Here is the input.
Amino acid sequence: MEAAWIETFYQETDAPKRLELLKQNTENELTQADVFRKKLWVARYGKRKPTKDAFVGSLMELKCLAEGTSLDFGGQRRKQAAKIISTLCLADADSLNEELRENLLMELKNVFLKFMEVSRDGRGFTSLVFGMGQLSDEGVVKKIAEQISTIAFQAPHALHMDKEFALLQEAALQAFRQEYPNREHFLKK
Here is the structure.
C-alpha cells in the first residue's frame, strides 16, 4: 500500500491532485522520505495552494540559457545556472542518501512529464506556422525531444555543468523513455 500511493504521486501531473495525495498519506507518522517530499513540494509549488511551478520555470530558464548567446559577461550565465540548481534542489544531491536521491529523481521526472503534457496539449506548440495546420504525432515527439535535449543536455554542456545537472539529465531520460518508448534516438545527448 505504501509504495502504491508514492507511485501514483510521482505519475500525477495535476498539482492539486498531487497535494491531496501528499496530505492524505503523510498526516500520521512522517518518515525521512515524507519530510523530504514535503520539502520538495514547498520548493516546487510554495507553501500555499499550487499556483505556479518553480521547477518547470527552471526548465524554461535553462532553455533560455541554452538558446542565448555563448558569451558570459561577468559569469552571469553560470550564476543563473547556480540559481537553477538551487531551485531544483540539485545542490545537495550528491550528499543525499539513496532513498532521498531517488525521491528527488522521481520529482524531477515528474517535472518533465508535466512539461511533455503541457507541450503535447498546447495548440501553439503543436501547430506548424502561426497556428495553421498541426504537426503529426511523430512531429510533436521530435519537437518535444528537441526541447528536452536543449534543456537537459545542451544547456548544462554549454555551461560546463554536466556533473551538477546529472540527476536532471537522468530524470529527463526516464520521463522521455516512459512517454515515448523506442524513440530515445530523437534526443541529442
Summary: Residues 53-186 form one domain. The mean pLDDT is 88. The two ends are 37 Å apart (CA to CA). The chain has one domain: 53-186.
